[in-house]
Design brief:
This protein has a two-stranded antiparallel ribbon. It contains six helices and two strands, in the order αααβαβαα. It has one domain. It starts with a helix and ends with a helix. It is mainly α and 146 residues long.
Length: 146
């Protein structure tokens, strides 16, 4: 709730359209999750989903190395995932929920720190970074606008 309120304050202070702000933070969150996702086979990273309004509970099939174009082990680029996120976010408007999810059975243990590649989880740190980004932007905007 606090995160949503801060984004609204930022949009009002900057005069940016709220749907643009919502899409930007949704995209930044998804990109951050992809970059923090541990990679062994690529299935976890490929099973990260972004959706509008309701969670996308699909996952990549067993033996999959992720969606076509998604980053592979050791690759820090988001590849085809950027186009996927932009497409999904094109319908996001002010007031709609953007849902970031991963429905693999081992997603919760990874989030709880049971991965050497992501010892503090994936989603939690990204949300903290997004909140800090909003706080910083709102603070800068307050100094610039009388």
């Amino acid at each position: 709730m606090t995160f949503a309120v801060d984004v609204i304050k930022f949009a009002k202070k900057t005069g940016l359209r709220m749907d643009v702000v919502v899409r930007k933070f949704g995209f930044d969150g998804f990109a951050g999750i992809l970059l923090r996702s541990p990679v062994l086979t690529g299935r976890f990273r490929g099973s990260n989903r972004i959706s509008v309004l309701n969670a996308d509970l699909t996952v990549e099939p067993e033996g999959s190395s992720g969606r076509a174009g998604s980053a592979r082990a050791g690759d820090t680029r988001t590849g085809g995932e950027e186009a996927y996120a932009v497409n999904v976010l094109s319908t996001a408007q002010a007031g709609t929920d953007i849902v970031l999810s991963n429905n693999l059975p081992y997603a919760v243990p990874i989030e709880d720190g049971h991965s050497g590649q992501a010892p503090v989880g994936v989603y939690g740190p990204v949300l903290i970074e997004l909140q800090a980004s909003v706080d910083k932007l709102v603070g800068e905007t307050k100094r610039e606008i009388p």
